[in-house]
């Protein structure tokens, strides 16, 4: 049995992982997903939606779980789970990055995305007049986030969930990571080979920044949990069971 805690990324929510929780529970794991501040059922206002608030919320959830946990972060949440591990490394059995940011000390999510010449999301999001939040249009959700989801009914189901105001502060906050704490926690990276948000080139560059013991590659866009859900849960189950990765 493994404790699995899933953390969503920008414009997302715990809903991203809903269909997997029951499957993983039936396999004998304890699995849960949470809404970060300002997402889903967590209605924190934009000024309170910061990287520090994200990290604090995940630490709160992690410490409420008995025993060590496997912490799974998607997209922006890679930077979040990294900083959680920096603060409570002994609580984390393994970090799992799903097409996620894996920054060096001092880097920010925004800086990583700006360095990705092939990344298509950043140029297509709309910022508020004061720059405090951003939104993404429905057409870009379909073309950039869910482009490889083949079933129209699934696209129709998921697309409206992305229509939120995403605070920008978490993108700009530099991370503070050390070899002694964060560097000591085992890491797995799940590459998304068709990703239009963070290209494979950026994913590989981030992977090279730290020791990553396991690497999986999925033929998917930025949301493998939505486009290839059966394979995604299969990989998570293998990681949870401690099976060796197929690179």
Please summarize what this structure is:
This protein is α/β, with parallel strands linked by helices and about 250 residues long.
Description:
With 247 residues, the chain is an alpha/beta fold. The protein is built from ten helices and nine strands. A six-stranded parallel β-sheet has the order 2-1-3-4-8-9, with helices on both faces. A three-stranded antiparallel β-sheet has the order 5-6-7. It is globular. The model is unreliable at 243-247 (pLDDT under 50).
Rg (C-alpha, Å)? 16 Å
Walk across the major sheet and give the strand order: 2-1-3-4-8-9
Q: Which band does the percent of strand residues land in? A: 15-25%
Query: Please, how many helices?
Result: 10
Which key features would you list for this structure?
single chain; 247 residues; alpha/beta; six-stranded parallel sheet; three-stranded antiparallel sheet; 10 helices; 33% helix; 17% strand; globular; disordered C terminus
């Amino acid at each position: 049995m493994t404790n699995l805690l899933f953390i969503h990324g920008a414009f997302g929510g715990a809903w991203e992982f809903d269909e997997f929780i029951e499957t993983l529970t039936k396999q004998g794991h304890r699995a849960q997903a949470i809404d970060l501040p300002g997402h889903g059922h967590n209605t924190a206002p934009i000024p309170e939606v910061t990287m520090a608030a994200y990290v604090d919320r995940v630490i709160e959830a992690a410490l409420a779980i008995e025993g060590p946990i496997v912490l799974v972060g998607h997209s922006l949440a890679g930077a979040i789970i990294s900083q959680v591990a920096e603060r409570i490394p002994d609580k984390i059995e393994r970090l799992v990055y799903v097409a996620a940011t894996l920054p060096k000390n001092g880097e920010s999510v925004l800086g990583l995305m700006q360095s990705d010449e092939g990344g298509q999301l950043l140029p297509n999001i709309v910022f508020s007049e004061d720059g405090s939040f951003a939104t993404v249009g429905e057409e870009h959700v379909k073309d950039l986030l869910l482009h490889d989801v083949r079933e129209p009914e699934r696209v129709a189901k998921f697309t409206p969930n992305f229509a939120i105001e995403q605070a920008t502060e978490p993108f700009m906050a530099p991370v503070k990571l050390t070899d002694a704490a964060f560097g000591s926690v085992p890491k797995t990276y799940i590459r998304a080979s068709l990703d239009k948000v963070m290209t494979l080139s950026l994913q590989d560059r981030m992977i090279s920044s730290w020791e990553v013991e396991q690497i999986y590659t999925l033929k998917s866009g930025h949301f493998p949990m939505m486009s290839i859900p059966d394979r995604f849960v299969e990989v998570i189950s293998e990681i949870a069971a401690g099976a060796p990765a197929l690179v």
